[in-house]
Amino acid sequence: MTLQGKTALVTGAGRGIGHAIALKLAGEGALVAVNSHTSQNAEAVAAEIRSCGGQAMALPADVASSDDVKGLFDALLAKCGKLDILVNNAGILRDKLLLHMSDEDWDTVINTDLRSVFLCTRAALKTMLGEHAGRIINISSIAAFAGNPGQTSYAAAKAGIIGFTRSMSREVAKHGITVNAIAPGFIETDMTALLSDKQRAELIMHIPAGFPGAAQDVAEAVAFLASDAARYITGQVITVDGGLATGHCTI
Ligand code: NAP
């Protein structure tokens, strides 16, 4: 196990990719703080980890809210004393063509997908700087590179995460903290279950690997970035997409 003795916080770990990341980090020996918006989902995942012999605690909170994030970190640090690994995974979609997008739709996506990364990273840094060590892994999306009609808010937030990651990595590299992003492609979760059969078939047609990814594929990349093996990797974006973002080769 590569993460024995480490404490990890995974936001949005109640379902989907975050759930797989929480299980993977716990399987590698980390004590995992499972955040989710609903306490029911956070508690269920923490219980699942404990039932497999791992260590976990549920910390439900809205990571878009300053007050909630403060409460989350107060509770985490009171119980664990430190945080070694932060995975900023929580994210939502509110797809709409721009002309139909309300201020509220825009703000909700930017706050949940981007502001949360700022709030949680700032809170985590306070303990990581003291330890002179840390791993921050931000979940972006290939939508940040290519964009998608109806996803201006989502793509803006996910592209923002990449700029944030690169700048943060330079701020804290000398303190032993690495900051990287992962850009998943089409991963089978509740989020992509919203796609119609036609949209799904079209997307799969463009994936060079020929099939959608699983949450586990992202979790494996996170575990690598969280490990000592990745100590010299920072400011990078790792794409986990079966080749989707490389574009379509015509010759
Ligand atoms: P998902 O299945 O919809 O799960 C989203 C998780 O985020 C849920 O656990 C949800 O909490 C949590 N969450 C939402 N808003 C939150 C908030 N304000 N505070 C705390 N937690 C919140 O999504 P997913 O597909 O696993 O996506 C995970 C991440 O990967 C997202 O950032 C997404 O943008 C990114 N991503 C996904 C794909 C894909 O194909 N699936 C591709 C690229 C990037 P509850 O369970 O309590 O509701």
Name the hetero compounds present. Answer: NADP nicotinamide-adenine-dinucleotide phosphate
> Please, how many helices?
8
Q: What's the mean pLDDT score?
A: 96
| Protein structure class | alpha/beta
Strand order of the largest sheet: 3-2-1-4-5-6-7
Largest sheet: 7 strands, parallel
**Uncertain residue segments:** none
Helix % is 40-55%
Query: Nearest-angstrom radius of gyration?
Result: 17 Å
Q: How would you describe this protein?
A:
46% of the residues are buried. The chain is globular and about 50 Å long. It has helices spanning 16-27, 39-51, 66-80, 103-131, 143-146, 152-172, 197-205, 215-226; strands at 7-10, 31-34, 55-58, 85-88, 134-139, 177-184, 237-240. The protein contains 8 helices and 7 strands, in the order E-H-E-H-E-H-E-H-E-H-H-E-H-H-E. Helices cover 46% and strands 14% of the residues. Strands 3-2-1-4-5-6-7 form a 7-stranded parallel β-sheet, sandwiched between helices. Strand 4 (85-88), helix 4 (103-131) and strand 5 form a beta-alpha-beta unit. The chain is α/β, with parallel strands linked by helices and 251 residues long. Helix 1 (16-27) packs across helix 8 (215-226), helix 3 runs parallel beside helix 4 and helix 4 packs parallel to helix 6 (152-172). The structure holds NADP nicotinamide-adenine-dinucleotide phosphate. The site of NADP nicotinamide-adenine-dinucleotide phosphate has 29 residues, from helix 1.
